[in-house]
Write a structure and sequence with these properties.
- The protein is mostly beta strands and 142 residues long.
- The protein has a five-stranded mixed barrel with strand order 1-2-3-5-4.
- It is built from one helix and nine strands, in the order αβββββββββ.
- The chain has a single domain, classed as OB fold (Dihydrolipoamide Acetyltransferase, E2P) (Beta Barrel), CATH 2.40.50.140.
Amino acid sequence: MIILDSNKDILKIIEKIPKKKGLDKDDVIIGVVVQTTDKIAIINIENKKQNVLTPSATGILFINNVSKDYIEKMGDVVRIGDIIKAKVIEKDKFGFKLTIDENNLGVIKSNCFKCKTELVLNQKEIKCLKCKTINHKKIGKM
């Protein structure tokens, strides 16, 4: 079981990402889910502070790039406010197309949608220790 220690663990992940001015295909990013529909999630790529991106960028995560398994709707695997670790699979004039369909990619921090407490992540689910809510998400590794 992995318990994320707020921003400290996120910064450790960001420190391991090679520093550069922009993103290219196969780069790993950390981002915040800012909007979802049934089929896509919009990700605000949050590496600007570490001088990875200038300026910050937007990524798009399509439902078919989440898992090899069938996913009915995006909200089943990521929600607004989740912090995710993803990989760039394509770069175009609209932003970056992302994937979390690898073992080490996915949600690395999330809060309970009921009580807003930080959730405990393990292999297959995210559990709130306060209200006992369980969510099944695509969990990423540190």
